[in-house]
Amino acid sequence: MSFSSPTVHAGPLPLLDLEVLRTFVAIAERGSFTRAAREVSRTPSALSMQIKRLEETLGQRLFVREARQVRLTPEGEVLLGYARRLLKLNEEAVTRFLAPPVEGTVRFGTPDDQGSRILPEVLAQFARTHPAVQVEVVVGGSVEMQRQLEAGELDLILMTAGTPGQKGDQGEVVHTEPLVWAGRDGGVAAWRSPLPVALASQGWPWRGRALSALDTIGRAYRIAYTSEHWAGQEAAMLADIAVAPFPVSLVKPPLRQLPREVGLPDLGDYQVVLVRREGAGEASEALASQVIRAFHELRR
């Protein structure tokens, strides 16, 4: 199948079929017609025909077919962004009119590192789909938010797995990512002895993990900076007065993940869990679904 250069389209523009876009997104995310076919309960040949018609409609090749996988062309990558937005908008519209109206108040607690990443999008989308629900947001440490949840002061919280006092089966894991050592790019803090470390306050899982890892390898260190929030650790790193354990997704220039030659121990992954108060209600469950979806999209 060959495609000519784009030309001005005469007459009404064609409409994109949402089911075909759903198929397109499934193939792009799975990298395989066969795996995508299982997800959408269709045959690979049926998916192939859908994509062929989509390519003909747009006059562009969307996938490069290789031996065991498919990958997006540059045009396919552009379409993927549009497709995801169109599918999300369709979901919002259908939910707005067909889902039973939900009213009430949700009291939602989040640590600042997670809130800064997903909260703006979650609140904006939730306001569109559940306009009658009021959301009260509390930003704080995991230990204090867990206490508030148990006291009935919060309905829903995000917290780092492994927080002291957390029950082993408490919460649904919604996000996993590496915890790494970070510092200022070109800085000298990582080479000082003893190693200056910026840590979260007592009770944060990152703190205990980092100190235990340093003790295990016998690395001399001193706690140079302590903060209730990740922004405080970031400030210490930007000033090049300390290094810190940090989620890899939060390491942005002029910070960088410290290289192996610095000799710091591996910190493994950390997990974020979503914990619901028992009997919190329908509005809380609706917001929980939005939060889970936001983390899923964050991993893409």
TrEMBL record:
Whether Transcription regulation counts among this entry's keywords is yes
What this protein is called in its record is: LysR family transcriptional regulator
Domain of life, per UniProt, equals Bacteria
Q: Which UniProt keywords apply?
A: DNA-binding, Transcription, Transcription regulation
The species is Halomonas rhizosphaerae
Q: Which family does it belong to?
A: Belongs to the LysR transcriptional regulatory family.
Question: Domain HTH lysR-type spans what residues?
Answer: 16-73
- Provide an example Pfam family for this protein: HTH_1
Locate the transmembrane regions by residue number.
Answer: none
